Amino acid sequence: MGGAGALLITLSAITPAASVFIVGSDVIARAGTGAFICFAAAAAISLLVAFVYAELASAFPVTGAEYSILGSVLGPSWGFMALGLNLVGAGLGQALTARGLALYLAVIVPGASSLPIALVAVIVASGLAVLNIRANAKVTGAFLALELIALAVMAALGFFHPHQSLTRIVLHPMMLAAGVLKPASWRVIGLATASAIFAYNGYGNAVSLGEELHHARSRIATVVIVSLLIAVVVEFAPVIAVLIGVKDPRAIFAAAAPMPAFIASAAGPAIAKAISLGVALAIFNALIAGALINARQLYATGRDRVWPGPISRAIERTHPRFRSPWVATAITGAVSAAACFLRLDTLIVLTANGVVVLYFGVCLAAIVGRLRGSTAMGAYRMPLFPLTPILALIALCGVLWADLQDLAVGLPSLAASLVVMLLFAGYYRFWLRSRAGWALRGPDGDLAARG
């Protein structure tokens, strides 16, 4: 496929509408009008990390993504830690997304049972993911158009009927505490910024599509950076619109879901239901994009002979007509369906911070790769090296510190990520390394690292 197809799938994986309605609601509920600072800071951090991803993706445009990149640049143990975060996070993340879809459909169809909806959504999305990659680009592109329309309507509701001063929002952020509006503390803004980063997450998924992208080395960096820039614009604008368009900040900030509450107050229940339907379609679109990306990462492990022989050979099979990794797609779909039975709070804890740890790893890989020359084959070079990855690392340290202060989700999530990383690194060092056959492989042969 061309760059436009890869861009559509990557944007669908970011899921701007779901990010605004789910993550945006969480950030506004915690930080109030401080959400402006949170989303602005998250955009700056994400841009730094996107430059890093763009350089690494240009050097290693392979399906294995962070597993292949970190394994080639930093060593196999690092690659397997990234693999663990991706594989575990893939199934759990899809389940969490599907449960979110069920919550939004419940707004439209009251009384609908969430678990059957989530299971059906995962199964249908996995089935669509088996289709040819160009067909999937068209499908996700159509859903993405509806998603952007919903966000545009939401932005118009706030910008055309302002009730708050943008200057006051930026300079004097207010939050709700014990039913009273008071200045938002920097600690709260820092914790909420950690959540806002996840709203933009997904631009790095372009790496997994590199083997199906024409002229990937010269194009993939553009896909990574442009997808983030579009996400920032289409997500940040509705957030600003809500902050300046809210008539009663106390009522909206206190709502269980501030974004739908704002729409209902500004446009009425009919428009709220229509936009909720748009968000539900956006979430389903994200499930398709996630199934595409997750299956390709699992496929890479079969090609690399990560698992015992028969299992690896099965995982690397492709569909005779669509040329898609259909066995890997079926496996990831089955795991995601099984994960739907977990409690929602458990899914949140297990998936919340894996992406921050991966960001940390790719920033280290960018520095080491440039110094050792192992990324020299790439067509793109990030600006201001080594300042860009160093600033990103400093910012990520701040995010990790904020997560450590969050005893409900942040700290348990980091602990879960550490356990997964140690298990997969141990699998490589104490089992796979002593056996012949494993190697990091791209479409054109072996990469740098071998067992």
Mean of residue pLDDT?
A: 88
By helix and strand content, what is the structural category?
mainly alpha
Strand order of the largest sheet: 1-2
The CATH topology is given as: Amino acid/polyamine transporter I
The count of domains is 1
Q: How far apart lie the N and C ends?
A: 33 Å
Percent range for β-strand residues = under 5%
The whole-angstrom Rg is: 21 Å
Principal-axes shape call: globular
Total beta strand runs = 4
Oligomer: single chain
Order of helices and strands: HHHHHHHHEEHHHHHHHHHHHEE
Assigned CATH superfamily = Amino acid/polyamine transporter I
Major sheet: size, sense and barrel closure?
Answer: 2 strands, antiparallel
CATH class call? Mainly Alpha
In DSSP terms (H or I, runs of 4 or more residues), the helix count works out at 19
Sequence stretches where pLDDT stays below 50 over 5 or more residues: none
Question: How is the secondary structure organized here?
Answer:
Blueprint: H1 3-14, H2 16-31, H3 35-59, H4 66-73, H5 76-108, H6 114-129, H7 133-159, H8 166-171, E1 174-177, E2 180-183, H9 186-200, H10 216-245, H11 249-254, H12 258-267, H13 269-303, H14 309-315, H15 326-339, H16 344-351, H17 354-372, H18 387-405, H19 410-432, E3 439-442, E4 445-450
Antiparallel strand pairs: 1-2, 3-4
